[in-house]
Amino acid sequence: MHGMAVQYSVCVRSILDEGWVRVLHAKPIATHRHYDDPRTLLILDLADQAAMLGLLNRLHNMGLTVLSVTLCPADVE
C-alpha cells in the first residue's frame, strides 16, 4: 500500500462540531443523538498505521472515547 490512503470510519462517544472535524481532517460526518450516548462517525483517509496511531492519540488527548474503528471497503467513496 505504498502511497495509497486507506479509508476508515471511526465512531466516538460525543458530538463533534465542524471545527473539530476540520482539525482531524475528516470527511463530512454523521452525528447520532438518539443513542443513550451521543455519537459522531468520522470518515478518514489514513496513509498508514502511523497515521492511525496519530489519530487515536489525538482522540485520546481530546478526552474522547473511541467506540469503533472500521476499515471501509475500497470501492466506497
Overview of this structure, please?
The protein has 77 residues and is an alpha+beta fold. The protein has one domain: Alpha-Beta Plaits (2-Layer Sandwich). The chain is built from two helices and four strands; from the N terminus they run E-H-E-E-H-E. The protein has a four-stranded antiparallel β-sheet with strand order 2-3-1-4, covered by helices on one side.
Concise description?
The chain is an alpha+beta fold. The protein has a single domain (6-71), classed as 2-Layer Sandwich (Alpha-Beta Plaits), CATH 3.30.70.
Distance between the termini: 18 Å
Assembly classification: single chain
Task: Name the average pLDDT.
Answer: 85
Based on CA inertia axes, which overall geometry fits?
Answer: globular
Architecture per CATH nomenclature, i.e. the level-2 architecture: 2-Layer Sandwich
- Order of SSEs: EHEEHE
What is the C-alpha radius of gyration, as a whole number of Å?
A: 12 Å
Overall structural class, as computed from helix and strand content, comes to alpha+beta
Figure out the total of helices. 2
Write down the domain tally: 1
CATH topology: Alpha-Beta Plaits
Please bin the fraction of helical residues: 10-25%
Percent of residues in beta strands = 25-35%
Number of strands: 4
**Major sheet characteristics:** 4 strands, antiparallel
> CATH class, please?
Alpha Beta
Question: Low-confidence runs (pLDDT<50, min 5 residues)?
Answer: none
**Major beta sheet, strand line-up:** 2-3-1-4
